[in-house]
Amino acid sequence: MTERVRIFSVACIALLMSSTACSRGDDGEVEQSRSYDVPESLCGIEMPGVELDKLFPPGERIEERQQSEQDSERYGSFTCQYLVDRVPVLLVSGHFDVHGDIETPPWQSYAMRGDPGRESVAVEGDFEARAWPGAAGAVAQCPFDGELDPYYVSVVSMYPKDEDEAVEVVSELIQPAAAHAEEHCTASQPGAPG
Q1: Cα–Cα distance measured from residue 193 to residue 64, given in angstroms and rounded to the nearest whole number
Q2: What keywords were assigned to this record (predicted)?
Q3: pLDDT, tens digit, for every residue of 13-38?
């Protein structure tokens, strides 16, 4: 076996064993690719004008997990999570258990991205909202026992890695997510049908 054939064989085996497909870019660098389709909406929420592909890394498989919980107290919550190759990359959640301080990043952001290490920025829109690199929180109003109560909505994303771009992307997501939560929060209330 010639040296060239042996190197090619080793490279082919390594490529087959990797979890993502790759190719060489124009600059000779190895580029990873996606083997799955990027969702057209997030957690059933339309996101017009948002480049959703920025939220999803190269990989083989995408999985969406949704969960809604109710109990006998005032807590109704929802969680929608996306995983790529079993690694969490995006989380959208909401709950009556008020976050408390809109100036503090969602706690999930520490697990997914670490300490944001910078001040939040206000996100313009119908809901009070703040954003950090890869994390955003907003307060919607949802009916509970005949009164409107604060309903905290958050979006946490691992991607994009660039901090400025990550702030921009979650800022685009949080207002539609809060609007969707406010519109559908009665389905998350304890005792509500659905």
Answers
A1: 23
A2: Signal
A3: 333 333 334 444 454 454 579 999 99
Is the pTM higher than 0.85? The answer reads no
List CB contacts of 188: < 8 A, sequence separation 6 or more.
Answer: 68, 69, 70, 76, 77, 78, 94, 142
Sequence ranges of the domains in the chain: 1-33, 35-188
Complete edge-to-edge strand list for the sheet that includes strand 87-95: 62-70, 76-84, 87-95, 147-157, 135-144, 128-132, 121-122
